[in-house]
Design brief:
Blueprint: E1 5-8, H1 10-18, H2 23-28, E2 31-35, H3 36-43, H4 51-58, E3 62-63, H5 77-89, E4 93-95, H6 99-107, E5 112-113, H7 115-124, H8 132-140, H9 147-156
Parallel strand pairs: 1-2, 1-4, 2-3, 4-5
Helix pairs in contact: 3-5
């Protein structure tokens, strides 16, 4: 079962590309879009080793917002454009990790999912076999997920905990 359109923010994109798991988005969603501000954020540093994967995957998924971005006072530019694009496209989900931005989005009635939730669902649907190696990659690359949360998810899925 696939879940319509997802709008992705930069944080989850970076995490998924580091773990070489962008393809999960294609397994879970019919369509993936990112706003122009997120594209600018994720392609700004040409020296990153994963930049070519990001450009290849997202170059045709970028969409400009039509309306005025009234949310830049409460969240960063990429997050705010993601919320606006979600509303403009009537998307099914907003893929976002930032706690403050997610809370604001949820207050607008936006259906949010984070990277860890996305991966947990992927394991439940047998799209991926293990979470632990992915979580280890996040830790090694200084992705800021709560160790407690990661271990709770691992424990719930019957996997060995992280050290």
């Amino acid at each position: 079962m696939r879940n319509g359109l997802v709008i992705a923010d930069s944080g989850p994109i970076i995490s998924l590309v580091l773990a070489d798991k962008l393809w999960i988005l294609d397994e879970l969603f019919d369509e993936i879009k990112i706003p122009k501000a997120v594209w600018t954020e994720i392609t700004a540093d040409e020296s990153k080793p994963f930049i070519s994967k990001i450009k290849e995957y997202f170059s045709k998924k970028v969409q400009e917002i039509k309306g005025f971005n009234e949310l830049t006072f409460v969240m960063d530019y990429g997050e705010s454009e993601s919320v606006i694009l979600y509303r403009e496209t009537n998307a099914s989900f907003l893929l976002i990790d930032d706690k403050k931005a997610r809370k604001i989005a949820e207050n607008f009635g936006i259906q949010c999912i984070g990277t860890i939730g996305l991966l947990s669902i992927s394991k439940d649907k047998r799209i991926i076999n293990e979470l632990r190696p992915i979580f280890k990659t996040f830790n090694e690359n200084k992705r800021f997920y709560s160790q407690k949360l990661l271990n709770l998810v691992l424990e719930s899925k019957g996997e060995d905990l992280l050290n």
